[in-house]
Design brief:
It comes from Thiolapillus brandeum. This is histidine kinase. By secondary structure, this protein is of the alpha+beta class. The chain folds into four domains: 68 residues; 79 residues, 2-Layer Sandwich (Beta-Lactamase), CATH 3.30.450.20; 80 residues, Signal transduction histidine kinase, dimerisation/phosphotransfer (DHp) domain (Helix Hairpins); 167 residues, Heat Shock Protein 90 (2-Layer Sandwich). Helices cover 50% and strands 21% of the residues. The protein has a six-stranded mixed β-sheet, covered by helices on one side. It has a five-stranded antiparallel β-sheet with strand order 2-1-5-4-3. The N and C termini lie far apart (122 Å). The relative contact order is 0.09.
């Protein structure tokens, strides 16, 4: 507050006006500075708003582009949230699986649209007859999954035609060599059988001839089975198979072949309760092919081992190994080719059948061997998706057949 009584002289009044002018100038400068700051902030805000609008526009354009791409994709895309509900899908998925999809539980869609049974966990048949390839991925940090469905029906038809053509060509080769392959063991069996009625044979000779006949007939049976499986084009009725039960079945089938040979068979597992999809008869036949090959390679002494183990949580590996003479790299490179054999009385179908059966089950087979260091055949098969209740009875942990 200004004391007016103190301004009684011109000098003091002049000083008061000077102070007032200074304050007025300071206030004016401050106001101008404030205006400048407000203007600068307005410009920055406008720039930020413009940049944000540009970013939102770009994101909207990108979202629209991605949406158009999603709608244009020939394969089905289904996004499933953390609750198992379809949050998004494209027209291709709707065309494959039918409506409704959005807002539906994925389990209900699977039950509604997919045919029962699953020979291959990566391929499923729909109830409308189409065959789709399935793959699923997580959404990164976000909960849920994205499922990709590819219609492979036409590709499967073309592949079947190609396979059929190859098999017809191979069957022509097989028919050409069939007479010789069957005649040799059959003639030997008939010769031994004709001698059984001779009164000059003692009991020891009769048993020896009977054993020879049985060997020739088993050889014939193996050849016929190989040819039947090869001609079947690898199509089998599949079921859920428990590893322990499968190994017991394999042991029962292999035991007569090893009896009295001097070769020891060992079968072991650390995953008896795991379950895989397959045809037990076809797979045990494939393993038996490998076992009899190993038995012949050992020549009456040594050991053959079968081991079942998990290569990873989704893959079962069945390993057949021996300590025989091994296989050369040249032979190993062609070992799974139909009609390729290094044995005078072989058909060349045994390992081709093994390869075909394993592939028909969605698996793969590999041979590792070096001359003089034995051979190992490793069959990898996909496990079943759902666990099987534990089977009763004893498990197949380790079993040895010493002959």
């Amino acid at each position: 507050m200004i004391d007016l009584d103190a301004l009684d002289s011109p000098e003091k009044l002049k000083q008061a006006f000077e102070v007032f002018n200074q304050l007025s100038q300071t206030l004016t400068a401050s106001y101008r500075e404030l205006e400048n700051q407000v203007a600068r902030l307005n410009r920055e805000l406008a720039a930020a708003r413009s940049e944000r609008l540009k970013t939102l526009t770009e994101k909207e354009q990108l979202a629209n582009k991605l949406q158009r791409l999603l709608e244009a994709l020939p394969g089905g895309v289904v996004v499933i949230d953390a609750d198992g509900v379809v949050a998004e899908c494209n027209p291709a998925a709707v065309q494959l699986l039918g409506e409704p999809l959005l807002g539906q539980r994925w389990d209900d869609i699977v039950a509604r649209s997919f045919a029962a049974g699953c020979d291959n966990p990566h391929e499923r048949r729909l109830k409308n007859g189409r065959i789709v390839s399935l793959s699923a991925r997580s959404l990164g940090d976000a909960p849920g999954q994205i499922v990709l469905l590819t219609d492979i029906s036409e590709m499967r038809v073309l592949q079947d035609l190609v396979d059929q053509h190859k098999r017809l060509s191979a069957m022509g080769e097989m028919v050409a060599s069939m007479a010789h392959q069957v005649r040799t063991p059959l003639s030997a069996a008939m010769l031994y059988a004709s001698q059984l009625g001779s009164p000059r044979l003692d009991e020891i000779q009769r048993r020896r001839f009977s054993r020879k006949i049985l060997e020739r007939l088993r050889h014939l049976e193996r050849q016929v089975n190989d040819m039947l499986i090869f001609a079947r084009e690898g199509r089998f009725v599949t079921d859920r198979i428990r590893v322990g039960d499968f190994l017991r079945r394999l042991h029962d089938a292999a035991e007569p072949h090893f009896a009295g040979t001097g070769v020891r068979l060992e079968i072991g597992s650390d995953c008896d309760d795991e379950v895989f999809m397959g045809n037990a008869e076809a797979l045990s036949g494939a393993l038996l092919n490998l076992l009899t090959n190993a038995l012949e390679a050992l020549g009456g002494r040594g050991r053959v081992r079968v081991r079942a183990e998990l290569a990873d949580p989704q893959t079962l590996c069945l390993t057949v190994s021996d300590d025989g003479p091994g296989i050369s790299p040249e032979v190993r490179a062609r070992i799974f080719e139909p009609f390729y054999t290094t044995r005078p009385n072989g058909t060349g179908l045994g390992l081709a059948v093994v390869d075909g059966i394993v592939k028909a089950h969605g698996g793969r087979v590999r041979c590792d061997s070096e001359p003089g260091k034995g051979a190992t055949f490793r069959i990898c098969l996909p496990l079943a998706v759902q666990p099987l209740p534990l089977a009763s009875g004893r498990d197949f942990q380790t079993r040895q057949v010493a002959m």
